Amino acid sequence: MSAYSEQSVIAKIEKLRSELHRHNYRYYVLDDPEISDAEYDRMIQELIALETAHPELASPDSPSARVGAAPLEKFETVQHSVPMLSLDNGVSDADILDFDKRVKKNLDTSDNILYTAEPKMDGLAVEMVYENGRLITASTRGDGVKGEVITENIRTIRSVPLLLREQSAEKMPRYLEVRGEVFMGRETFRQLNEERLKANVPVFANPRNAAAGSLRQLDPRETAKRPLEIYCYGLGKAEGFVSDSHWERLQILKRLGFRINPMIRAKISIQEVLDYYQELSQKRHELHYDIDGMVIKVDSLSLQAELGATSRSPRWAIAYKFSAIQKTTKIIDIGIQVGRTGALTPVAHLEPVNIAGVTVSRATLHNEDEIRRKDIRIGDAVLVQRAGDVIPEVVKVIESARTGAEKEFVMPKQCPVCGAAVYREKDEAVQRCNNINCSAQIKARIRHFASKAAFDIDGLGEKLIEQLVNKGMLLSYADIFSLKKEQLQSLERMGPKSAENLIRAIENSRRISFDRFIYALGIRHVGENIADILAEKFENPEKLSSADVADVESIDGIGPEIAESIRNFFEQEENRNTLNRLMASGVEILTENKPKQNLLEGKTFVLTGTLESMTRNEAKEKIEAAGGKVSSSVSRNTDYVVAGKDPGSKLDKAVKIGIQIIDEKMLQELTAEKR
Ligand code: JCF
């Protein structure tokens, strides 16, 4: 480098550094680069060459100085000058509206509050300390009070400014603590795992774990290999910020060189916050990073100060979380469940995992083919999914987590419950127990028979059925209506009172619409819809059981497979006997399919208090659909007063003049469409 004088080298280095700082800013913060990646690389290489030739001119703030610090022995800890609190959580609009109410109550105001809302990054919170514009230390959140010093690792993150952007001297904050969330983009994560797979090292389960693992490297050069990102969301101790608005402070941070999420919405009403949540839920999969919800903050700093914090979290902020539907866990064992049609379903027994508020310890594996297709083995780490009310299932195996100790699962050749041979029909994935008297099948058929959409027998649950079948009191569902109170009392945990209740529940379910009846029989392929169609067509069990395949198949919506299955069911003597016994034991089929259609004809209802299972409008619709009408005030013409939570004076009046008072459940029953 003798071609340059020392002076011109200094000038050249300074020029390159300042240009590179600016390009960094344009690229990472503004997301609006002026030059190509190649151009940027060329400049940084030139800078590194100059700095290598002139080690006396090296600087820790140089854009080239993001990697290169020596590995640490261990992380030092540091106390945050202002605790890094975590956020309170909500999972529903109601939770967020409650939060808004609390805020107003605590501020003793009825004025609308302005909020700032942002995507909640699924990463790790960190704090960076700047003195006179230079990054001095950075630390993890840790337990909120003390964190680990990870300065060198944070320096490797290109979107973290090493130097604050030039301000006039009096505007440059002398001391500044900036907080943000470090994360790894999904694509980066995918590439990282791909490389790890090739290198035969365990892959990370998700971007968050990958970011955490990368940030906690003792060797910053390792961290540098895994491109992390940051979005800054707030301040710790800071001097010279005068604005009272959180949002405006974030704008100042942006001008200083910090990366702020462009999706932050500023100064919006609580209703707009809820709308934005819907929007984010839709958009979240299009983002290049994982988010796990939204963060909502009171925008005014003076109001924030007035609200203060509990020991755990600020009262001026809340996280509105998405409900996670997939989690990773481990398969401890694989068992077999025998269903009412004899189908053997392999079921994964899992290390319990909380998915969207529900503890999941079982997942269906469907059948043997599915296990082979997904190559699921006992001991595997797996991704489990719970969608709505559906049974949890295994999405995929985390193959990289395999140790070699996993065991393949083999489908048994015999029913694990009764020992009968297992068969597999042509073109069917399912294997079945051949014995229709298998106790597992009997129990499953009875459970189905008593279930909500069938006879809906309150209190006849899994445990009880288990006992009744094991003791020989129930050989089939046809025996249910012959059960005696004395018999029931002999069972575990069954006092006279509960025995009586169960007998009453059974008695109450004796009258049933034909479609529910058909569904309850548990004919293969006959679900609620098909049962409905069959009930319309055949009117009664005699006609249905004697119908021929062609008749059934000619019905719109019923294919040959279903028709065949129905014929098959009624051809079996055992089933015909069961059906006869059922009818003989007093089941009464209501021939009118929707008998309650006009049951409330001429009846007048008054609603009071808060209903929990439906809105007032829904209640009104239900009543009107059943022929009744709803009035707003109680009079002698009122037939029923429906009392919800915290009923008002209408209830008092109803009591006084002797009008019948019912609760929500009763209303549901009165207006139920079928029974
Ligand atoms: O994105 C986040 N995970 C995130 C976490 C965003 C924020 O605005 C936060 C936070 C944790 C605490 N704000 C606070 C006060």
Mean pLDDT comes to 90
**How many strands appear in the DSSP assignment?**
26
Q: What ligand species are in this complex?
A: 8-hydroxy-2-methylquinoline-6-carboxamide
Looking at the overall shape, the CATH architecture of the largest domain is: 2-Layer Sandwich
Oligomer kind: single chain
For this structure, the CATH topology of the largest domain is D-amino Acid Aminotransferase, Chain A, domain 1
Q: What is the global morphology? A: globular
Total separate domains: 6
Q: Total number of helical segments?
A: 24
Largest sheet: 7 strands, antiparallel
| Content of β-strand | 15-25%
Radius of gyration: 34 Å
Task: Please report the distance between the alpha carbons of the first and last residues.
Answer: 94 Å
Determine the CATH superfamily of the largest domain.
DNA ligase/mRNA capping enzyme
Helix content, binned percent: 25-40%
SSE blueprint:
Blueprint: H1 6-29, H2 37-53, E1 77-79, E2 89-90, H3 93-107, E3 115-121, E4 124-131, E5 134-140, E6 146-148, H4 151-155, E7 175-183, H5 186-198, H6 207-215, H7 220-224, E8 229-238, H8 246-256, E9 265-268, H9 270-283, E10 291-298, H10 301-307, E11 317-321, E12 326-338, E13 343-355, E14 358-364, H11 368-374, E15 377-378, E16 381-385, E17 393-397, E18 407-408, E19 422-424, E20 431-433, H12 439-450, H13 462-470, H14 485-489, H15 496-508, E21 511-513, H16 514-521, H17 528-538, H18 541-546, H19 549-553, H20 560-571, H21 573-584, E22 588-590, E23 604-608, H22 616-625, E24 629-631, E25 640-643, H23 649-657, E26 660-662, H24 664-671
Parallel strand pairs: 2-11, 21-22, 23-24, 23-25, 25-26
Antiparallel strand pairs: 1-6, 3-9, 3-10, 4-5, 4-7, 7-8, 10-11, 12-13, 12-16, 13-14, 13-20, 15-18, 16-17, 19-20
Helix pairs in contact: 1-2, 12-13, 16-17, 22-24
The protein binds 8-hydroxy-2-methylquinoline-6-carboxamide.
